[in-house]
Amino acid sequence: MTPFLLDERLANDTQPLADLPLCRALLMLDARYPWVVLVPRHAALSEVFELTPDDQQQLWREAGQLGRAMKAAFNGDKLNIATLGNVVSQLHVHVVIRRHDDDAWPAPVWGHGIAEPYSPGEQQAIQAHLTALIETLDLRG
Length: 141
Description:
By secondary structure, the protein is an alpha+beta fold. It has a single domain (8-135), classed as 2-Layer Sandwich (HIT family, subunit A), CATH 3.30.428.10. Helices cover 30% and strands 21% of the residues. It has three helices and five strands. A five-stranded antiparallel sheet has the order 1-2-3-5-4. Strand 1 (14-19) and strand 2 form a beta hairpin. InterPro entries: HIT-like (IPR011146), HIT-like_sf (IPR036265), HIT_Hint (IPR026026). GO terms for molecular function: hydrolase activity.
């Protein structure tokens, strides 16, 4: 069996938050948006349909519960959940909180502007906040 390895581009653009029942949760390193990427810990997947039906349900459970909690915690106007994979083919799901006054509104965040890095203190604070938020979720099916 091939081990799970995180695509190098995802690894370079994110910081680990937690391992959920199915996915590794990663903080996207763009301070413009509260943004988490979920990557199922299976090797060599690029499409949702490649997951078992149970894992597909688990993926949406994790994305939905995390998104709901993030929207409340970050006072979002809209929640975007998406799988694209046009640049990074490894299956991953973006969970992004949007606000009417954010840099890209109402357009998608992908390809809009240049990512703004967190200051070390900001990154540490949002990582702690998201990790604590994740710990409150009941993600078992």
